[in-house]
Amino acid sequence: MKKERETMNEKSRLLEEFKEWIRFVSEIREMDWQITIAEGKWSVQDIVSHILLWDKYFLEAAISPILNNTPLTLTHMDFEQFNQDAIEYGKTKTKEELIKMTIQYRNMILESIESFEDDKFTKEYADGNFTVISYLRDFIWHDQHHIRQIDELKRRAM
C-alpha cells in the first residue's frame, strides 16, 4: 500500500511538472519567436517546434500504444536529423498553430498517462528500454533546459 501511494505521488508530481511546458508556451506567446537564443543557435520557434514533434513522436510511438495495449514502435533514430526536420516543420506553421498543437499533444500525453494504472506507469517496455516514469523525468529535464534558455533570452531582451 505504501509503495502504491509513493508511485501515485510521484506520478502526480511528474505530471504536474510535465504540464509546465504548456503554461510556459502560453506565457511566451507575445515574444518574438524568430529571435535566436544565441548566435547560430535555434530560435524560440525552432525550440517550440522541436519539443512539439518529440511530444508527437512519443505519443504515437509509446504512450498511445501503452494506453491501447499494443506494441511500442520506438526506433533508434538520427536525433540530429529529427531535430532538423522539426525545425523545418516549424517554419511551415504560424506561432498560433504551434501553440495550439503544442498544447494539444502535451495534453493528450498527460491525459493518457493520467489514466494509466500504476503498473503501466512503472512497467518496463521495449525490452527494458522505455518506462513512462523515465520518459517523464527525461523530458521534464529537457523542457526545463529549453525554458531556461528562453528565460535567459527574455532577460537579455529587456
Entry summary:
The protein has 158 residues and is mostly helical. The protein has helices at residues 2-27, 44-67, 79-90, 95-115, 118-122, 132-157.
Descriptive report:
The protein has 158 residues and is mainly α. The protein has helices at residues 2-27, 44-67, 79-90, 95-115, 118-122, 132-157. It is built from 6 helices and no strands. The longest helix has 26 residues, at 2-27. The mean pLDDT is 93.
Key structural traits:
mainly alpha
Low-confidence stretches: none
Helix content: over 70%
Question: Helical stretch count?
Answer: 6
Rg from alpha-carbon coordinates? 16 Å
Task: Describe the secondary structure blueprint for this structure.
Layout: H1 2-27, H2 44-67, H3 79-90, H4 95-115, H5 118-122, H6 132-157
